[in-house]
Design brief:
CATH superfamily: Gcn5-related N-acetyltransferase (GNAT)
Radius of gyration: 15 Å
Distance between the termini: 36 Å
Number of strands: 7
CATH architecture: 3-Layer(aba) Sandwich
Shape: globular
Helix content: 25-40%
CATH class: Alpha Beta
Order of helices and strands: HEHHHEEEHEHEE
Strand content: 25-35%
Length: 176
Amino acid sequence: MANGGVANQQIRLMEINSNSPAVLISDASQLLLEYGRFVMAQPGSARFCFGSLEREAAGLPGSYLDQGGGSMLAYAAELPAGFVAWRAMPVDVAPDAWEMKRLWVTPEARGLGLGRILTAAVLDRARATQRTAVYLDTVPESMGHAYKLYLELGFKPTPPYNDNTKEGITCLSLSL
């Protein structure tokens, strides 16, 4: 899908749950794996174990629902175009907070504001469920647009909150 042809198309967000149609779960899994292939293609710090991501994709929607969170798919021009997930933070780290994970917008759909739309949808859900903060980690070197978006939305640097100690990873949080 060419960006120009998509710009006038309606964007739909679909939250994924245990009653979601198989095609929705399949589309979400494919985007999650596409995100993983992007990360694996990056040099150094952005890389992670693709096998764990494959298990995560195969376990949707439970991969996030079972962790007190969820996931969402964005469609543009009736094609899967973006994905995001979230999960509850461990109570001993940040009670009543979520961690946002796996924000991905397909290359064809970039420029439509889907990253902002998906992030805002997670923040809206967090506020609606009285979460106190949303955390995330990112790699500014290879995910510069996402990093800039997070800063524009008010996320601030925070000390590492998880066991991901790879060089180049920046942790951010937003108090709600």
